[in-house]
Amino acid sequence: MHVLSIPTWIIHISSVIEWMTAIWLIWLYAEASGNLAWRSLSFGMLPALVSAMCACTWHFFDNTLDLEWLVTLQAAMTVLGNLTMCLAAWNISGKLKVES
Question: Average pLDDT for residues 81-96, to the nearest whole number?
Answer without folding.
Answer: 89
